[in-house]
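Please go through the sequence line and token line underneath and see whether the fold suits the sequence. See right below:
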Amino acid sequence: MEDVIEWSIDEQGIHIESANKPFLKYKGFLNKGSTDIKSDIKKAWEERAKRYSK
């Protein structure tokens, strides 16, 4: 694993931190749904109803 840094400059100076953040290992873990929130909620309720109606 290589070392990678991120840096930024502001009025207080230069800020440097590790770019190897632990949460990055989850990149792509969550599926991207549609941008239609109402449709997504309806779909989630339907899937939940199927699970609990058995």
